[in-house]
From TrEMBL:
Keywords: ATP-binding, DNA-binding, Nucleotide-binding. It comes from the Eukaryota. SUPFAM superfamilies: DNA repair protein MutS, domain III, P-loop containing nucleoside triphosphate hydrolases. This is DNA mismatch repair proteins mutS family domain-containing protein. Belongs to the DNA mismatch repair MutS family. It holds the Pfam family MutS_V. GO terms for molecular function: ATP binding; ATP-dependent DNA damage sensor activity; mismatched DNA binding. GO terms for biological process: mismatch repair; reciprocal meiotic recombination. Residues 102-136 form the DNA mismatch repair proteins mutS family domain. The keyword Glycosyltransferase does not apply. GO terms for cellular component: nucleus. The keyword Nucleotide-binding applies.
Length: 148
């Protein structure tokens, strides 16, 4: 019984010392939390820029050009490119002041939602400065992402 009591007391002392050490660490962390948040933002931005640079160099993406119209020729969803088991079917999309409404129809599981997400994703990618997965018009040296 004495041995069990000594073990219990030792375990309690370990718990108390652990709480003191962890409390001290938390106090230091609380004082520097602003720096840690800033550091995490910097690492996230670096990761984003590295990912965009890697995508631009590895994939055959196109530099988007911005005009008053949205014209995507032979565009495809970039995530589907990585996970597709079969060849992707590229899609075209066009929108301007005159034609700003599109009805997308088709049977269930035919890709309507994927098509709409693709157009939105390519637009976001272009606006943040990333290359986009669409054809490039080599003759005019222009991206078909926004060329009429």
């Amino acid at each position: 019984i004495k041995m069990n009591d000594r073990c219990s007391e030792s375990l309690n002392e370990i718990y108390i010392m652990t709480n003191v050490v962890i409390g001290g660490l938390l106090d230091v962390l609380r004082k520097n939390i602003g720096c840690l948040y800033k550091l995490s933002e910097c690492v996230a931005m670096l990761d984003l820029l590295l990912s965009l640079a890697h995508t631009c160099t590895v994939s055959k993406y196109t530099i988007p050009e911005f005009t008053d119209t949205l014209a995507i020729r032979q565009g495809f969803h970039p995530i589907l490119q990585k996970i597709a088991f079969e060849d992707l079917v590229p899609n075209n999309a066009y929108a301007s002041d005159e034609t700003n409404f599109v009805i997308v129809t088709g049977p269930n599981m035919s890709g309507k939602s994927t098509y709409m997400k693709q157009v939105a994703l390519l637009q976001i990618m272009a606006q943040i400065g990333c290359f986009v997965p669409a054809d490039n018009d080599i003759e005019t040296n222009a991206s078909t992402f926004t060329v009429e």
